[in-house]
Write a structure and sequence with these properties.
Elements (H helix, E strand, L loop, with lengths): L1 H24 L5 H32 L4 H28 L7
Length: 101
């Protein structure tokens, strides 16, 4: 039963996230909806990054045998966040002059 529930949640989140990403990047959708979709996707990604950092910090506090895992998870979150910020800035610079709608 857990496998079916996991599959259903994964399918729902994939549909919602993919739809939000497509909506945020589509020029056919009105700008307010694109902004809302972009904010939603950003909140989801920030939540995932927060969970990774939280687990990394908890590895330091709970068990002294896991500081390497904690450092690895924190570095993974920093790398993920840096990549997201870099791609966002790159996209904004690419489309900064294309607001002829």
């Amino acid at each position: 039963m857990d496998g079916i529930l996991e599959f259903v949640f994964e399918l729902i989140f994939e549909i919602v996230l993919e739809g939000s990403i497509e909506t945020a990047s589509s020029r056919r959708v009105p700008i307010p909806l694109r902004i809302l979709a972009g904010v939603f996707v950003g909140i989801i990604f920030l939540g995932v990054e927060f969970i990774i950092v939280f687990v990394g910090i908890m590895c330091f506090g709970e068990n002294m045998n896991l500081p390497v895992v904690g450092v690895g998870l924190i570095l993974l979150a920093v790398l993920f966040g840096g990549t997201c910020v870099y791609r966002f800035i790159k996209t904004v610079r690419k489309h900064s002059g294309n607001f002829d709608e």
